[in-house]
């Protein structure tokens, strides 16, 4: 039964992967870059990327030549890196949900799971403190999970 549940959740992953394809493979990548390039100089400055949280966060790491701006290649690598993060976080969320579904005595349909950079957040309502602890332990045991913020509440 557990394998069936995991397989069903995993079946949704290819759809997520297709939706989160690397930006550099999208035909409108050039227009996306140009839309951010407010001054039209062919580069992105920190102020031009400030409205894009994930891009701004990656700015320094992907400014390979340390000139304080991103060219199209650096921008594409930063966008691709974020897409990989999205895919990884989606896979972790799927695995955590599958573990919760497979566990007996855990009201998995009452638990929301979200993941960002490998950090999992559990939220919702369960019936006992033991369920809170067990759900947190199950989530923490999933490959790729860096930490668990267990915000489950007993109703």
What can be said about this structure in brief?
By secondary structure, the chain is α+β, with helices and mostly antiparallel strands.
What does this structure look like?
The chain is of the alpha+beta class. It has one domain (21-154): EF-hand (Recoverin, domain 1). The protein is 53% helix and 14% strand. The chain has seven helices and three strands. It has helices at residues 2-11, 13-19, 29-36, 46-49, 53-62, 72-102, 129-140; strands at residues 111-116, 119-126, 147-154. The protein has a three-stranded mixed β-sheet. Strand 1 and strand 2 form a beta hairpin. Helix 1 (2-11) packs antiparallel against helix 6 (72-102) and helix 5 crosses helix 6. The longest helix has 31 residues, at 72-102. The model is unreliable at 4-24 (pLDDT under 50).
Q: Biggest β-sheet: count, sense, barrel?
A: 3 strands, mixed
Beta percentage is 5-15%
Which value, in Å, is the CA radius of gyration? 19 Å
Per CATH, which architecture?
Answer: Orthogonal Bundle
Strand and helix order: HHHHHHEEHE
By DSSP, the count of extended strands is: 3
Task: Classify the helix fraction into a percent range.
Answer: 40-55%
Keywords:
155 residues; alpha+beta; three-stranded mixed beta sheet
Outline the secondary-structure elements.
Layout: H1 2-11, H2 13-19, H3 29-36, H4 46-49, H5 53-62, H6 72-102, E1 111-116, E2 119-126, H7 129-140, E3 147-154
Parallel strand pairs: 2-3
Antiparallel strand pairs: 1-2
Helix pairs in contact: 1-6, 5-6
């Amino acid at each position: 039964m557990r394998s069936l549940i995991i397989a069903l959740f995993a079946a949704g992953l290819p759809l997520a992967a297709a939706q989160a394809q690397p930006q550099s493979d999208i035909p409108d990548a050039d227009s996306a870059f140009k839309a951010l390039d407010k001054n039209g100089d062919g580069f992105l400055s920190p102020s031009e990327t400030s409205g894009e949280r994930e891009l701004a966060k990656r700015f320094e790491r992907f400014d390979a030549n340390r000139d304080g701006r991103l060219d199209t290649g650096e921008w594409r690598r930063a966008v691709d890196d974020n897409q990989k993060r999205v895919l990884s976080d989606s896979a972790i969320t799927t695995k955590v949900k599958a573990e919760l579904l497979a566990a007996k005595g855990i009201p998995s349909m009452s638990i929301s799971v979200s993941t960002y950079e490998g950090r999992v957040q559990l939220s919702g309502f369960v019936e006992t403190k033991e369920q809170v602890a067990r759900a947190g332990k199950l989530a923490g045991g999933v490959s790729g999970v860096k930490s668990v913020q267990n915000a489950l509440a007993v109703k």
